[in-house]
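Batch manifest line 442
LIGAND: zinc ion
JOB: complex structure
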Amino acid sequence: MTKFKQEDVWIFNPERECMTIEERRKLQLKRLKKVVKYAYENVEFYRNLYDEAGVKPEDIQTLEDIQKLPFITKDDLRKTYPFDMQAAPKDDWIEVHSTSGTTGIPTVAAYTRKDIDIWGECVARGLASLGVHKNDIVNVAYGFGLFTGGHGAQYGAQKIGALAVPMSSGNTQKQMNFLKDFPADFLCCTPSYALYLAESFEKAGIDPKSIPLKGGLYGAEMWTEEIRQKLEKKFDISAQNIYGLTEVIGPGVSTECHIKDGMHIAEDHFYPEIINPETLEVLPDGEHGEIVFTSLTKTGMPVIRYRTKDLTSLNHEKCECGRTTVRMSRITGRSDDMLKVKGVIVFPKQVEEVIMSMDELSPAYLIKVSRPGLMDVIEVFVEIDQANFSDSMTDLETLKQIIAHKLKDAIGIAVKVTLAEPYSLPRSEGKAVRVIDERNFD
Ligand code: ZN
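JOB STATUS: finished
ARTIFACT:
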């Protein structure tokens, strides 16, 4: 059986990924000056924004000068829907992607040939650090279409010369067959879907460990260390994190190496800053806040100081893997997705950590917040994992109480726990929907 081997990992572009900090800063400054000028000259939005702020492209003389430029947000991208943020001439666009638009007008980004090449390389860097080589098969079970997930993983695999299988999401029985029959060496999809696949194998009486998979890059949704451990244990693989967003380029903005201590940002292409989301002040290294990206090389839709709303921190220490690129920690939340329940800030991640730490529970869960009277009620639906539930340990009522205690410890308020039938909670084939907020705030 072939499984993950550390000696298989490699560095895709050592010249860029391992350059000294000074060399990289020089390269970043050169590219920053170029992209600010390029955006100013080709995008009316940036021209107006910088004119109003009284700043000119020539004012960028050091990397720190980036702080003279105003931030941009998703709202700015919505206001310029569909193509007013594009800098490259329409003739040069070869592909378009879009966010789902579930919370409003979608964000649309057109890519030039150069953008697609950069994107493929960024994902290839992550796949190399997972041990993907030319002779490997990579199953891509992220969604295809306007969503960036599937295409990004495919371009990355192909950049290495590996065989990409564009499975897309859904049709789980076929996924299971292809994983076994091809057989796939690597699987890239959302972590929740990978867990669902593991569960589906178990349900079919097949030990997921018996599948020849060695690892995968998992992302496109927030996940925890506990999910990683579950995935790695169930499949006996290396599960590494990949981060990105359509506005910046898609997946591959940062990817985790096998050391698994933060995701290496492709810093030669994306310049990161961490800010305090309330005061907008730039925070020093190591402090936790909202990550802001500037695309240094993208030509289709460059973004300059784009506020992602994703909360994380940066670490410039040299990584054991040999890469010198800065690492960002796992996303711990979004500055706009925290729930306020009974006046207390709750992140869905806190609930997830409790659920995932209990072997008696399956990884599926749902958080429902409602306000039946004057008070908020938070209810967490969980499923028993039949394989791991031994009735000698406890009865169901006691288990419910244990979960409720653990949740209260984690989030600080009382939680109603409801045990759902095995396999009854919704599984996601794309991004998992795990919070239902039924409160009416009008
Ligand atoms: Zn590393």
